[in-house]
Each structure stands twice: as structure tokens, then as C-alpha cells.
């Protein structure tokens, strides 16, 4: 996050990536031994299927785009929006299959499909979900398929050298889905590609209605132009579920033909990368025939491949990155069709500006014996605007607490002399009731069950190591006492106004969800644009984030975005890096507060 030369950044990247990949190996081995020992416990909590799938796709999107692969996802409209299950484990299986598919495919596409089948003979609303990940990669010889699911097994010894990996992922995935009542199998043809299938059996549970289906989209005619058939299907399926009337073609020439002869259309979604005519060229041609008011356009691009064409904003009402997320598609289409968006932003723009800047005033104690982790925690806390003290073990932590009050203790679990669990119990004994600081566990044992141990010892929250800025900000944001925060993360009046304006708390909750699922991509764009020194893109994304933040009364976030926007408009990016760090931290707090507010009141 600080100034680095390009070379230093590369090296730091290598260190970070190596660390993460070692951590991956360790996690796989831990997982596997846990399974072998029969100690695997699955969470049984409501999970939103789409979120789980989309976050898994996001994790492979950058690599896939880098290789020029199309990644898409088709979810059966009949699938339950939410199920009872273990989202982390389900995502783990998906990420493994998707990562393999991308790893072993050099060109073509990777498609995740989900089908759902109700289980008639089971009590309750139980479904068998069938997931499949199809790729167009190197494939697997028939005589090797059986060995795939054995532990430590790869198709041949050269795989490890060429592609890395431990050969444990599929074995773990298979056991995990068996534990979820399903099975895993594969079909493949060498040179053509592979399909990995798995099923899980799960009970449906009421989830968020997937989209606030507004009447504004009903009956609207949408044209999708993309050379990739799966992407066309993703868009048309979604659009149909919102009551739109979609139409598709893989040929820009055919699309132009339809428009030329006057076929009625309300919005066009077009892909940037098409072989004969790219998205911008097609947009130019369409504009000769119809102006922006008559026919708004939405551009579909790959993550990180945003066309640097400055004119993009001129041609398109909205841009979407692949893999397409339902929520983003929805906002893009709504923006393009010009419905709802205007009204939602109006009151926010008139909100009085609060100028004074104040960091969150929490007194934080870090109880941690490992010097590297101490430094890391202090550094990240510093970035978030917190000042903290350090104690090297549980005994020291208790002494520090006796000396002066703290609001929060970030508590390592394994420490010499007195561990974090014991220290937490003692804190409860010594400071009963409200006087007690909040205790947030920091532990490397990111496994099911550890959380429970920490909570049982009286800790209030839990973040896993390595500590990430977002997680830390969210955990601290959640414990900021209102009075101790001169400037609140959210202006509650703004939410109230929004609710009153919409007349429907559920809609506000959906707006919040939409914001929370869109904002990370926006932040990515912002970071990316800054890296590319693209002032116009920085300005545009900061502007969008600011407007959204204002809608929800996230005043501080809006202010920082405004500052970035001002700098970028003046064509200077100096200082933006620093501000962007603040945006990241503040956004994590805002998201946390918003989701809590939306859950509490809708
Ligand atoms: P890892 O990828 O860590 O080696 P996995 O258990 O996930 O372990 O995969 C085992 C092996 O199966 C891989 O090394 C590879 O040889 C083969 N494999 C898995 N997925 C695919 C795929 N989509 N296409 C071709 N080969 C695959």
C-alpha cells in the first residue's frame, strides 16, 4: 500500500503470492487430515447460493481473463435462492474445480452450471443441487479419470512441474460433497476438455428475493450481441426472469440489420471482444442509426480489460465486467433504461456536507507474541486511523487493561505464559458487564470449530490470519461505540429518508445488497485505474462510489471519494494512493454497518 518502485512491487507480489500458495498447501493438508480423522464438521447456516457462486467465480476471473478465457455461469431459475449449508466449504469445492478448469485450459471457455431438482421423497423443501464445471482444456485420458479423486494424485508426474498443485484438491472436494450428501465425478475427452460434476443435497430456506424486480423492466426489449453463446444465454435467461423480452445474436452485422430495419428495442448489451467488429465499433455504427436517448447501450468487457477508449463513457450508458453477476447486470440495465436511478440519488446530493475529519476513536490493545504479526497489526491499524498498544501475552494484556481502559483487544490465541482463551475468560471475570473491552480473536486456525472455541471463551468476534485490512476494518467498525465515534460511519437519517422515500424497507435492504455486491468491483476498478494512471477512469469510478455512498448516508466515504474525484478532475493522481487506502478502510466499515442496519430493520 505504500510507495514502491515497480521492481519492488513485483518482488513484494512474489512474496505475497508464494506466501498465499504455501498457506493454500498447508490448508489443504490440514483439511485433508481433518477429513481423514473423521473430524470434519460442516456449518449449517443459511447461505445465499448466488453469492457463494459469484464469489467463487470472482476468485478465478483475473487469471481467466489474463489467459483470454470466457468464464460464465448459468444458474437454474428454479434453484432455491438460499439453502442451509456451509458456504465456505461449498465455495472451496467450486473454487478448486474452477481453478483447475482455468489452469488446464489455454483457450475457449469455462462454464459453471447449476441445476436444481426437488427431492420429492424427503420431508421439507429439500433439493439436490447439481453443479458442473465445463472447460475446453487439455482433457484427461480415460484410464486416468479414476485416479483423479485419490489423494496426492495428479494425472502425470509432469503436471506438478508444469502447473503446480498438490493433487489434493479433488480428493478434498469429493469428500466434502459426500459429507453434503452428494457425489463427485468427471467426464473428459483429451484435447477437447473436461466436465467435473458434483451434487449436494440441501434444504431450501427463505433468502433475499434475488432482485428487486421493478416494473420498470417489464416488457422492455433487450438485444444481446456477443459472439459467445454462453454469455448470451446468461444475459437472456436473467433478462427473461425480470420480465424483459430478450433477443440475441452472435453477429454484429445481424444486430445492425435489425436496428436498421427499425425493429423496436429498448436497450442493447454488446460485448467488447468480438472477432469481426468490437463493441466500440459496433456502438459507433448503432449511433449512426439511433441516438443515445432512443437506444441506450451497455458494454460487456472482461475484468481488467476495460477498453482504454476514452470515448467509452460517450457511447455507453453503463459497463459490465464478466463473469456477469446478476446484481450488476440488473443495475446496468436499470441505469441504461433510466429507471429508478435518478430518484434514488436525488435526496442524497442535497445532503449537507460535513467537513471535519475525525478518525475513529477506539482505544485498541493488540495482544500478540509474534513480532511480525505485532508489526503488521500496528501498521494496518495505523492505516485505518487507530492508535494501538501492544502486549506480548495474556498476562501483559491483563496488566495493560488494569492500567488504563481499552475499547477493543485484538487477541492472539496461542501465546506463551497465558493464551488468548484464558486471558479472555479472566477479562470477563475482572470486568463484568459493560466495562469490559470487546475481544476480537486473531488466529491462524481458520477452521470450523475454532471460532466456537473462541466465542465460548468469551471473545466477541473473530478474524483469521493473515490479517487483511478489510477484515480488520470490518471487525473494528462493528465495535465502535456510537459516542466514541465523532463521525459515524453511516448517517442513520439518510437510511430513514431512503426507507420513507421508497416506502418499502425490503427494497432498501435490496439496494444495500446491490451496493455491497457492486462496490468491490468498483474499488477494483479504482485501484486498477490508479495503477494505469488513468485519471478519467479514477474520476468516474470515484464519482460513482461517492454517489452510491451518499445514497446511504456514508458521509465520510463520500467525502474521501469526492477528494479523489477532485484530484482526478484536475488531472493529478498524486495523493490518490493515500486516499484510496482510506476508501478501502472506510468502505469495509460502511459495508459492515449497512448490512447490519439492513438486516436489523427490514
Ligand atoms: P492439484 O490441481 O492441486 O494438483 P487436484 O486434485 O485439484 O490437485 O487435481 C488433480 C489433477 O487432476 C491435476 O493435477 C490435473 O492433472 C487433473 N485435473 C484436474 N482438473 C482438470 C481439468 N479441468 N482438466 C484437466 N486435468 C485436470
What is the topological layout?
Layout: H1 6-36, E1 45-48, H2 49-66, E2 70-75, E3 82-85, H3 87-103, E4 109-118, E5 126-135, H4 158-163, H5 169-179, E6 184-189, E7 193-205, E8 221-225, H6 229-241, E9 245-249, H7 252-260, E10 267-271, H8 279-289, E11 297-302, H9 312-315, E12 318-322, H10 326-337, H11 341-349, E13 363-367, H12 371-383, E14 387-391, H13 394-403, E15 408-412, H14 420-430, E16 438-443, H15 450-456, E17 461-464, H16 469-479, H17 492-502, H18 505-531, H19 535-551, H20 555-569, H21 576-601
Parallel strand pairs: 2-4, 8-9, 8-10, 10-11, 11-12, 13-14, 13-15, 15-16, 16-17
Antiparallel strand pairs: 1-3, 3-7, 4-5, 5-7, 6-7
The structure holds adenosine-5'-diphosphate.
General description of the model:
It is a single chain. The protein contains 21 helices and 17 strands. Strands 1, 2, 3, 4, 5, 6 and 7 form a seven-stranded mixed beta sheet that branches. A hairpin with a 3-residue loop joins strand 6 and strand 7. It is of the alpha/beta class and 602 residues long. It is globular. Helix 1 crosses helix 5, helix 18 runs antiparallel to helix 19 and helix 20 packs antiparallel against helix 21. The site of adenosine-5'-diphosphate has 20 residues, from helix 3 and helix 5.
